[in-house]
Amino acid sequence: MILAASKRPISSLLFLYPSFLQAAVPAARRHESSARRTTKRLRVKPDPSFIPSTPTNQLQDNVIFNPPSSSPSPYHTPAAFLPPSDPRRSLLVRSHEHANPYAQPNKRLPPPMHKPIEKRYHLKEDEIAEIRRLRQKDPDTWTRKKLAQRFDCSEFFVSMICEASKERKQQQQMALDDIKARWGKRRTYAREDRQKRRVLWARDE
């Protein structure tokens, strides 16, 4: 009766028919059957190899190797789990040979990327004594780099044969403390975190 008596368009009278709007707008609903089917798929029983066959009070620590179902490969099963007469042991040995072709004794190795450094022991006792004398006399002028260039050796060798004096070490430490005092919070935290990582690397953690 409302539609017949009114001259307004039907689109402006849709608020009078909420059921019509609900039927017009599609909505996703979950029924009992779909909910039951979804939960049933999630109820997956564990593999029998994970279920202990012994009582709980008699269980001991053991290793369970349960790889996913796939094509057989010697890489999937470790050698510790293979019997001595298993043919997959020979396949595993052959696979390692093919994986590293340079393990063969007669195989030529690829050329080195960097030229190898040959160690030389050309310095004599008097030259080593001269390096120590110059280093102790004027460490600011005769740095490790300059001494290594003059005597044709490495800076590491210079640090091995002569050690800086206590005054020199104190000056270097004071200069380093002055630089650290100008650091902000972010750089200080980053350097402390770097030092912690180096300690963990030394511990192999």
What can you see in these coordinates?
The protein is an all-alpha fold and 205 residues long. The chain has 9 helices and no strands. The protein has helices at 2-5, 18-24, 32-42, 88-99, 125-137, 144-151, 155-161, 166-181, 185-202. Helix 6 packs across helix 7. The longest helix has 18 residues, at 185-202. The protein starts with a helix and ends with a helix.
In short:
The protein is mainly alpha-helical. It has nine helices and no strands.
Keywords:
mainly alpha, 47% helix, elongated, 205 residues
Order of helices and strands: HHHHHHHHH
Low-pLDDT runs = none
| Radius of gyration computed on alpha carbons | 39 Å
Q: What general outline do the C-alpha atoms trace?
A: elongated
Q: Main β-sheet, in a few words?
A: none
β-strand percent reads under 5%
Quote the distance from N terminus to C terminus: 83 Å
Quick one: how many beta strands? 0
Q: Helix amount, in percent?
A: 40-55%
Structural class: mainly alpha
Helix count from the secondary structure assignment: 9
- The residue-averaged pLDDT reads 76
Give a topology summary:
Layout: H1 2-5, H2 18-24, H3 32-42, H4 88-99, H5 125-137, H6 144-151, H7 155-161, H8 166-181, H9 185-202
Helix pairs in contact: 6-7
